[in-house]
Amino acid sequence: MAKKKSFPLRVNEEIISAVQQWAADDLRSVNAQIEYVLREALRKAGRMKKPDQTSNR
To answer: In 10 A of CB 33, how many CB atoms?
Structure first.
């Protein structure tokens, strides 16, 4: 697994509130939810490959 890197992020209150609720609905932490949203956006834009479906986790 790749090493995680910390990154300070400033987000307005309306956005962070919506992300917090979305994360709670999906039973994720806010950090995990932000990573999920970014990963999906990167894949959709063709900037990140889909994970190997044959690997075991």
So the answer is: 19
CB 19 within 8 A of CB 30: yes
Residue carrying structure tokens 């990154």: 7
Q: Residue 53: its pLDDT value, please?
A: 57
Per-residue pLDDT of the chain in tens (57 residues, 90 and over written 9): 678 899 999 999 999 999 999 999 999 999 999 999 999 999 999 998 877 655 554
CA 35/CA 44 separation, integer angstroms: 14
Residue 44 and residue 57: Cα distance in Å, rounded? 23
> Could you identify the residue written with the tokens 């959709």?
44
**What is Dmax (Cα atoms) for the chain?**
40
